[in-house]
Specification:
two-stranded antiparallel sheet
């Protein structure tokens, strides 16, 4: 088989933004709803970057949709990639410490503030769990 006739399959990569939201030394996580990927797992708020959005605008939109707040997006604190089967995600974490409005679960079934010790005991998606130590070090 010649190199030109062999088709190389590439994974689909999805850019995702996530908020590392902290308050008084605790970190906000949301529980994923049933009927979606990874139901019942705790995750950092955020989501997919839509076509035409900057990562910061995407995270502001996601936090409005998921938590009902208007957030001031801080600096990037970590980026990582993870593969779920044939789909890869590029995950960009931003520090978020300032917002307007009352946080409430619009998308998640539950929201909770965890201490760094408690968060290590949570069931998290693999992509979040593998960077947890590095995220907690940014507190």
């Amino acid at each position: 088989m010649s190199p030109k006739s062999r088709k190389i399959s590439r994974p689909l990569w999805i850019p995702v933004v996530a908020a590392f939201m902290t308050l008084k030394g605790k970190i906000l996580l949301g529980r994923r709803p049933e009927g979606q990927n990874l139901p019942g797992l705790w995750e950092f708020p955020g989501g997919k970057i839509e076509l035409g959005e900057t990562p910061e605008i995407a995270l502001q939109r996601e936090l409005q949709e998921e938590l009902g707040i208007v957030a001031e997006i801080g600096p990037i604190i970590l980026s990582s990639s993870h593969q779920y089967g044939n789909t890869g995600i590029l995950l960009i974490f931003y520090k978020v410490e300032v917002w307007r409005g009352q946080i409430h679960p619009v998308h998640h079934t539950e929201l909770k503030w965890f201490s760094p010790e408690e968060i290590k005991m949570c069931s998290l998606p693999e992509a979040n769990y593998k960077v947890l130590e590095r995220l907690v070090q940014t507190l």
